[in-house]
Structures are given as structure tokens and as C-alpha cells.
UniProtKB/TrEMBL annotation:
<feature type="region of interest" description="Disordered">
    <location>
        <begin position="284"/>
        <end position="351"/>
    </location>
</feature>
<protein>
    <submittedName>
        <fullName>Uncharacterized protein</fullName>
    </submittedName>
</protein>
<dbReference type="InterPro" id="IPR036397">
    <property type="entry name" value="RNaseH_sf"/>
</dbReference>
<feature type="compositionally biased region" description="Basic and acidic residues">
    <location>
        <begin position="339"/>
        <end position="351"/>
    </location>
</feature>
<dbReference type="GO" id="GO:0003676">
    <property type="term" value="F:nucleic acid binding"/>
</dbReference>
Amino acid sequence: IKWKLDNIPSTYTGKSRQNYSKSLRKKLKEHHYASTYQPFTPLPHTLHYINRTTSEETLNQINQTVTTSLYFTLDTESIQIRQRKNKPVLIQIQALVSHHFSVIFIFEMCHLPREHTTTFNLIKNLITTIFNSSKPIYIWGERDELTPFVIYNLFSATQLSLTNFQNLQDKFKEQWQQQHPHITSTISSSDLTHECVCEKCIGKSSHELWSLQDAVSYELKEWLDKRSTMSYFNIGLDPQLSQLNLKEQQDRQKLTNYAANDCLSMQRFLIKMQIITIAPTTTTTTNIHPSNINHENIEPISSDDSEPEPEREPEPEIEPEEQQSQRTVTFNTPLSILEPKKHEQLSSEERKKIHNRICTIKQRHRYYRHELTFRDIDRRFTIRKIKNILRQYDISFYAVNVSTSSTTNTKTLYVGIRDPSLIQAYDQRTCMLFSTHHYNKINSRQRRYHSSSHSNRRH
Ligand SMILES: [Zn+2]
């Protein structure tokens, strides 16, 4: 690329020559960041798409989450249409539930429900809850970027003018200037190894705005992949919106990660710049614990009980590049990104526990979106047995998971179902399974003698 930049063909002239050299320079910078830094690593989070497939129940839950959140970050995506103004298509809002855990909402403006429907009004209410809360909403730039979105009738221009938007881009520049004055390498010998990173020395003029990518590179020493900037964010990113093949799923995942990462990198700045105050260290463990998310209402489970179904759900082969960007939607974020201070206070045992738990919840999110629930199952059913029985009943499942309630000590079985349209049929077919009665029946058949207990423990 560098060679190309130095040798732009003479056929390119004037404006097109400028554009060509600008796009090459961008590519060169992307390449430089990509080869210098590790890919950007977000903090743990979950993600919801908001569109016409989002259920009323989910929207109500989200409204709850949003009400209890303290801060928000916001970003938008638009698409370019030849000879026309940019079309606004996505609004990404991140709700910071605790300091290290957040929920990302991607509002797909081209796939909203029809106006005046119940779900449309719920989405509108959700936006109102966020915008009218007077809680700070951090954006990388001016609130103007939201103005084109008023055409979707989810909020008005007046509403925007009253919302507590905070320009993080300006705050970042200000802080960078304060904390990075020009250093001449002659001051002390130890400074010789450090290049000066004052704005002038890194080639930024005093009135030039910082791109999010530059800020991530210089402040976080990570590479925020910007190669998808000009993509079609209007295609419908939620896999629920249409039937997709693997390639289409991966493309949408990539764009989703891209859209979410802008919010997630702002969150990292809020912490790094100490705009979000860190909670007292004594509560550190509970703060980073994903179980704090009340709307998820996940019962304590041990990770040993959770087993993905390997035979029917082969992991798709992913190129290394995709694999990195896929981290965005997982909880599997290394704990090393936490403040070192906090990190040391957790014993390795504790860290492992948290990690396991995060992984378990992550799996549950992936597999149990559509699930059959069996309460109070007989505890003699092993995972292997359960799977065999499900296969006998021709239930196509992703994974099974057994959780033990810490209060009642009863076991609940969750079965993640592949095809949500079959869930009712499955439910009818399986409602008598996994009770004590069922267990005894199988056993008596197998061993050819009758068990004494016939109590049915299924409620
Ligand atoms: Zn300098």
C-alpha cells in the first residue's frame, strides 16, 4: 500500500487523485494498527436486537434493565446512497448495568414494527425512558448525528435537545492535551525510549477531532477494526429477521460486532478516564459478577452440568479474523482487562469460579433462547440419560442443562431447542418426562422388576 501511495498513477487527477490517496492512507493506517496492537477486547456484555421480531415481553424486560442502569453510551450507523444524503439505519445504545457489565441494544430502524402497533409504542417508550432519564448518555461527537433519525418517529428533535448527551470525543481530547504535554527527550535519559505522544508529535492539529480508532490505539493500545465502516447496516442484522446461510450469518455477526464495538470502546474510555467512578474495592467481586443482572434471573448452576450437543451442532469453521471479532458477543472476556488493582484482589480460585460462571451463562445464552423447561426432575437422571431419552422422542436439541435451586434444592432441566416453531409440539410430547414416576417406569422395564415408589414429583 505504501508503494501504491508513493506511486499513484498519473491517470488519477484532481479530486479522484485526492480520494484515492485518502483511501490508501486509511488502509495504511488500518494495517499499521492491525499489525501493532491486539484486536480491541470488549468487557462482558449481552446484546439485543430491537426490531419487529422483538417480543413485548423482551421489550418490557429491557425497559426494566434500562431503568436500573446508571450510564449509557450511544452510537449510530448510516449508509451512503449515491447522490443522496446518508440514510440513518442503526442506533446502538449500551446500558451500563454495573461498571464491568453492560447490555447493548441495536435498534434496526429499517426493520421496526409498523407505527401505532403495541411493540412500536413499547420501543418508543424504551427510547423515552433512556432519553428522558437525565442520566448521562455518552456519544463520540455531537448530538446532531441523531437528528436524521427523527423521521422514524421514535423521538422528536425537541426531545433530543433536552437529553443529557455528553460529548466524550471532546472530553477525550481535553484530557489527552492535559496529560500529554510535549516532552523533549533530553529531560532525562529514561525518556529516550519513549516517543512523545503530544498531539503535535503524533500529527494532530489542536482543532482536529480524535477518531475513535485513533483514541483506542493511543490510549488503550488496541486495534479497533474499522474495515466495515461503509457496509450495508440496513440489511437486517438480527438472524431472526430472515432465513440465513452460514456465510450470511457470519457477515451479520461481523457488522453487529462492528456496531457494538463503538459503544464498548467508549465504555473502556469512561473507565480509563475515570468518568465512571470505580465502586469501593470491597464489593469488587459482586460488581463484576454477571449474576447481578436481575432481568436475566438465572439460577445458580454448576458448569459441569452444562454440555453442548456436539453431534448435531458442529462448530462452524471460522477464519482467525472472524474468531477475533466474534468475541464481542461472548462473555468470555479475559479478566486481565480489569483494573490490575482489582485483579490482584481475587484469588486464582475466585477468578476461575467467575470465569466458569461467565462461560456457563454465555453458553446458556447461546443455546437456551428457545427451551423446554422441566421443573423438579428426578435427580437420578444423568445428562447422558436425558439426551438419549430426548433422542428417542425425536426432539432436536442444542444442549441440555440441569440447574439446582439453592433455596429449594430441586433440579430443573433446560433443553435448548433448534426449531422454535416446534416448541409446542415438543412440549406436549415430553410433558410427562423426567419425573420420578418416569424414572421408575424406565428402570422397572429395564431391570424387569418394579420399583416400590410411584410418586410423581413433577409439578
Ligand atoms: Zn511532543
